[in-house]
Amino acid sequence: GSLAYPSIVATMFTVIALLYAAATLPFVHATVEHNPKLSFDPMQLATNYSIDERDRGRLFLGYGVNPSAGTFRLLHDYPEPQRTEILDFMFSPFGAAFHRIKVEIGGDGQGTDGAEASHMRTPDPSSANFSRGYTWWVLAEAKKRNPKIETYALAESWPRWVHGNTSTSTGPLDAPSLPARYITTWVLGAKQAHNLTIDWVGLWNEHWEADAVMFAYCVELRRQLDAAGLHATRIIGPDAFVGAANT
Question: Which residues, 6+ apart, have CB-to-CB distance to 112 below 8 Å?
Fold first, then answer.
């Protein structure tokens, strides 16, 4: 029939592939065996796994979107109806229906694809401005389509006053009350100016140091959040803090 020729060709290619594999296998084995850098014992990779049906393990907390580091600035300028359609596809139940949205707490510094505006350019919280940037807009649009979506905010850069005029790698954290004040003011502004509850805040983007400096900042941030009545806002920190937090 009409399928006979293709079938024969496919069979021939299969046979050729098997012959090639058989011919090259000794060479590959010899290369691995005689090259100390490549030699290995597959049995060393064997691992025993214990399965306990009573242990629920880690729970799947959902998946999210990260419209930070300047990336969503472009969407803000999209014309209608395309902009609304994209937002619907991302946050509505009939679309991706993300469970969590992570935004950047801008610091007027370069993120990844741009800089996000700072809400607090001086140490005085009364000078804070909660209308700069597009972050508030995207949070409101996400909440409009999914009121239960969890919100997560993280600082990537800091205004100069937070650095405390230091030039060390941990400069913004050398005086922990300053970055804690900066983050707390942002979370409080989200609630008071935009009726947005922030569920999670991070410490500092791409800084996972579980050292004394970071821990002191984490403790101070928790203290200031609680003092501002933001008890429900949780902090995401290094796993190594779990033991330290119990001391």
Answer: 68, 69, 70, 71
The pTM of the full predicted model, rounded to 2 decimals, is 0.72
The one-letter amino acid at 119 = H
Q: Which tokens sit at 200?
A: 């999670």
Helix (H, G, I), strand (E, B) or coil at 65: strand
The residues that bridge with 173 in the sheet, in sequence order, are none
User: From edge to edge, which strands make up the β-sheet containing 150-155?
Assistant: 64-65, 100-105, 150-155, 200-202, 234-236
The segments of the chain whose pLDDT lies below 50 read: 1-7, 9-10, 12-13, 15, 19-38, 246-247
* Distance of alpha carbon 40 from alpha carbon 27, whole angstroms: 16
Q: Mark residue 166 as left, alpha or beta (left: phi above 0; alpha: psi -120 to 50; beta: remaining).
A: beta
Q: Which residue is associated with the tokens 């140091």?
A: 209
d(CA 107, CA 68): 12
- Phi (first) and psi of residue 5, to 5 degrees: -65, -50
CA distances from 103 to 122, 151, 163, 195 (A): 22, 8, 22, 16
Residue 188: Cβ-neighbour burial (10 angstroms; 0-12, 13-18, 19+): buried
